């Protein structure tokens, strides 16, 4: 797995697509609509904060973005980030198949 996308990138691309279609939505407008703070939404879109299940559902309700897709993308990103960190050596209970 090589540096997967952060789920916020999908939200950013979705907003860019709406802008190209003449239906621009600002981060402030979206934050107000989904009832989160603008700084939080900005951090998510810029890949500095994770998309939580709650936010994924709110984005789905407001924009129609698949909450399941956002969570799968976020999960892959989060696992990749953690895999890049120094971790203790863990001895398995069972041999791998």
TrEMBL record:
Alphabetical list of InterPro entries matching this protein: Cro/C1-type_HTH (IPR001387), Lambda_DNA-bd_dom_sf (IPR010982), Toxin_antidote_HigA (IPR013430)
HTH cro/C1-type domain span: 25-70
Residues passing through the membrane, by range: none
UniProt keyword Transmembrane helix, yes or no: no
GO MF, one example: DNA binding
Keywords, comma-separated and alphabetical: DNA-binding
This protein's record includes keyword Glycoprotein: no
Record-given protein name: HigA family addiction module antidote protein
Source organism: Acinetobacter terrae
């Amino acid at each position: 797995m090589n540096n997967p996308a952060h789920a916020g990138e999908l939200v950013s691309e979705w907003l860019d697509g709406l802008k190209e279609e003449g239906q621009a939505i600002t981060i402030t407008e979206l934050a107000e609509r989904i009832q989160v703070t603008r700084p939080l939404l900005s951090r998510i879109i810029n890949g500095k904060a994770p998309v939580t299940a709650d936010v994924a559902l709110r984005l789905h309700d407001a924009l129609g973005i698949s909450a399941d897709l956002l969570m799968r993308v976020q999960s892959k990103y989060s696992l990749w980030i953690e895999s890049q960190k120094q971790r203790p050596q863990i001895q398995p209970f069972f041999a791998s198949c």
